[in-house]
Structure formats: structure tokens, C-alpha cells
Amino acid sequence: MQAVQVMCRKATSDDVETLFQLIKGYAEQGVMLPRTREALVYMIDTFVVAEIGSEVVGCGSLLKLGDNLIEIRSLGITDGYKGLGIGNKLVDILLEQARLQGVTKVMALTYAVSFFERNGFSVVDKDIFPEKVWKDCVNCPKQLACDEIAVLRILD
Q: Where do the domains of the chain lie, and which CATH numbers do they carry?
């Protein structure tokens, strides 16, 4: 199979509808929190997208939870493009952005534990992230029965 050229860039307001549809697909499966178009417009500067040609095929964002803690969230790849290393590229870009912000602890809540482990994260107890609980979990329908796994990577 021919190698595909994947480019990652900061998301722009032109990407809102594509992000909305991509995230909605994951949210309908119960594996990602939904985001409204309005919320995406508001937080567009926290998103990066992956493109093949001019088609957006993946996304991810960062949410600063504290002085030295940031979360990778809304990380997703369009069906048909999984397994091409796009998620790894998005994580690399997000980790670099965390470094540029001077943050050394990067966490995520996920069902894709092995993916994050391959990207240098370790499984941790989610109770060590009270910042996350108060920012997002209070609004989550799974709040009292969360089955996501917390992962953490400490940057050098």
C-alpha cells in the first residue's frame, strides 16, 4: 500500500462542521463526550486536525486543567482512515503544544488504552485528577459509573 501524506495543522473556524460530525459519531457510540457547534467555535484554538489532501480525517484537542496538567481530548479518526498512524501524529502535535505551554503532565480518559501506551502513556488511577472531575465529569452522563481508563504521560 502506498504511504499517505498526512499533514497536521491548527483547526480553524472552517473546520467546525467537520469536527462536529466527527465527534458526534464517537459520541453516538458512547466513547466521546459530544460537543455543540457553539462549543467548538469557542474552543477552536485548542484543536488540531489531520488532513490527507484537503480532507480532514482526524482531530484532537487540549484542555488545560491546572498549572502543570493538560488533557488530550476529542481525539478521533474518520472511519476508513484508522490504522494509518494518524492518531500517533495528532498525539505528537498535541504533546509538542503541551511542551510549548510549559506543561509536563498530559492525561487522557480513554477506552483505547493500548494506543496511548504505545504513545508513552501509563495507566493511572483517575482519582489523581480532581481538576478533570470538576471541569468535565460533573456534566457527564457516566459520572457515577465511569468506565474510562485514565492515562498519563510525563514530558521531559
A: 6-154 (3.40.630.30)
